[in-house]
Specification:
homotrimer; 156 residues; alpha+beta; 60s Ribosomal Protein L30, Chain: A; 5-stranded mixed beta sheet; 3 helices; 5 strands; 29% helix; globular
Chain lengths: 156, 156, 156
């Protein structure tokens, strides 16, 4: 199956992400053969599923955090799809910048951001392997439990 | 008006930013047609206006936070001006990495970082539109309430 | 001395860094003449020296934080060495993204990340000068006290 076919076959694909109201930025920019994608959260269109708001180590368990990162990856790929026309133009994923909304005691950020990384490799195989940071954040916009930005290289 | 003229006409332009004493880095680097600018804060030359120190959700209100992000954007553009000779060489803003010093309860990071984003679009119009992250930080250097890094594409 | 010779002459070089078990990412990616390196911590191979776990402002003093950032820089350069074959292919360091695990009151993030910056300049001189951010993080993976990512330009 092509990247595009694998992506469309996923269960739980959310509605297309949009820039939140009153926010003055765009979801992606291109430079040369690089695509830069804004920090996204575990949204379904304009709504945040209740189980994905709050902090890891408090309201949000590690399994929910993983699912939130997986949902965020789907949003990142919906943006990439819109930017490129099709995911089949992805050459390789370059970097994933993951932030986990958490308590001072929580130290399993990588296990949470794996939800994003695993999906990328599920879709793109070796071309989905990426560099990564997984950082604890004291608070995130609208209480989302993860925010993840991404850059990738595409074929023209 | 040109970008450069619009920028010079702004009220409240701060003094030229500098690397803090004993800090071993530079304000910008170029690679190809990209300019990378270090994380900057709401400074006026070497001094931090008192209303811009502290945390959102505690000492710093949302309006002051917005103004701090706007002042930070001015500093980023002063660095770009120094790097390029003139802001008229800006092709497009690529990305803005915003960090907001805040309490665990504060969840309006985007409204704060808008202070930076709005200024960029005020100066560069559609070419000022950028990707963005807006992340809560438990603490920032010298108690500044925001720190923002930026990358842009320039014309040679 | 060449970059490579200077690096090999350092005392306290750690064992080669590896991706932590169950983590689905890679230590570096190349695009064009750029090398992107994943967020690394103050590790010695797979182990974290006890003095480098915890938070600045609490368990970890500022001098230990500086040493942790220095050790992290060594890890970043071990990755670069593996990616490029030799550090002599480094053209210039571009950016350093530093995160400091700290209390809400700690405000000396730059003094900590200097441990990384100083080492880069010790090895590469003017070509080691880089842009930088130094951000407070509420928590980091496995309680490491710093996490630092890096990008650099290399010669083919």
């Amino acid at each position: 199956m092509s990247y595009e076919e694998k992506f469309k076959a996923l269960s739980g694909l959310p509605a297309q992400p949009t820039v939140p109201p009153n926010c003055n930025y765009v979801l992606y920019k291109k430079i040369g053969n690089q695509l830069i994608i804004s920090g996204n959260g575990p949204l379904n269109g304009g709504t945040i599923p209740g189980e994905f708001t709050g902090k890891l180590g408090k309201e949000v368990g590690q399994t929910a955090g993983y699912q939130a990162a997986r949902l965020t990856a789907m949003n990142l790929l919906l943006v990439a799809q819109e930017a490129l026309g099709t995911l089949d133009k992805v050459e390789q994923i370059l970097s994933v910048d993951g932030f986990v909304n958490c308590t001072p005691e929580f130290n399993q950020q990588p296990a949470v951001i794996n939800g994003c990384s695993d999906l990328l490799i599920e879709i793109f195989g070796d071309h989905g392997k990426h560099t990564r940071s997984a950082i604890g954040s004291v608070a995130l916009a609208f209480d989302i439990c993860v925010e993840i930005g991404m850059t990738l290289q595409f074929k023209h």
